[in-house]
Design goal:
With about 200 residues, the chain is an all-alpha fold. Helices cover about 85% and strands about 0% of the residues. The protein has nine helices and no strands. The protein starts with a helix and ends with a helix. Keywords: Cell membrane, Membrane, Protein transport, Transmembrane, Transmembrane helix, Transport.
Length: about 200
């Protein structure tokens, strides 16, 4: 592996940094986009029962709001339940924007890293090709083995850049779809909850 990195030259180091960041972001997003942290099963029904029996203390509301995105939205509904439907929905939309921002955290960076990785690799290849052909002109006569070796080393960065970019883009699209799915389900749950408490 070390020989592989050394053969790729200087541009392998920024590519390695990109790969570490992509892996870190993917692990972080996989963790924070779990259903239990966004949309726990049965939470709406539990809160509805507690609210109907007036068993929700301020401390419980704060704890529920911190545990999941759905909890935060439902607690916002309860906080502003005495408002008319239009004003209540306006307050909820503000919180939904906050939730969406949290769900999409680091996605822009993930997409950027996946996009620039092949470009860095291509730049490394171009620089390697320049070096290979410069060495060719400085020697007397053409040495096919030397030229092939230089081109082979130059192409390593492009291959590594693509190797990083492909999974990065796949995960970026996966997370986008998962966030869209979560937001639709959150909207459904919150809308049903508003129907129950805002009569």
């Amino acid at each position: 592996m070390i020989e592989f990195i050394q053969a790729g030259g200087f541009f392998m180091w920024p590519l390695l940094a990109c790969s570490v960041l992509i892996v870190s972001i993917c692990i972080e997003r996989i963790w924070f986009l779990q259903d239990r942290l966004v949309l726990p099963n049965g939470l709406k029904d539990q809160i509805t029962n507690l609210n109907n029996k007036n068993l929700l203390s301020d401390q419980q509301r704060a704890e529920i709001a911190e545990l999941s995105s759905l909890g935060l939205l439902l607690m916002t509904c309860i906080k502003y339940k005495d408002l008319n439907r239009q004003n209540l929905e306006s307050k909820i939309e503000e919180k939904v924007s906050e939730v969406k921002h949290n769900l999409e955290r680091n996605l822009t960076m993930l997409g950027t890293l996946a996009t620039i990785s092949p470009l860095i690799g291509l730049l490394g290849t171009v620089m390697g090709m320049i070096t290979a052909f410069t060495g060719l002109t400085e020697t007397s006569g053409a040495n096919p083995d030397l030229l092939a070796s230089g081109i082979s080393s130059a192409l390593i960065t492009t291959a590594f850049g693509l190797l990083i970019a492909v999974p990065g883009l796949v995960f970026h699209k996966f997370f986008e779809q998962r966030i869209t799915h979560h937001l639709i389900n959150l909207q459904t749950e919150v809308s049903e909850f508003i129907d129950e408490i805002n009569i």
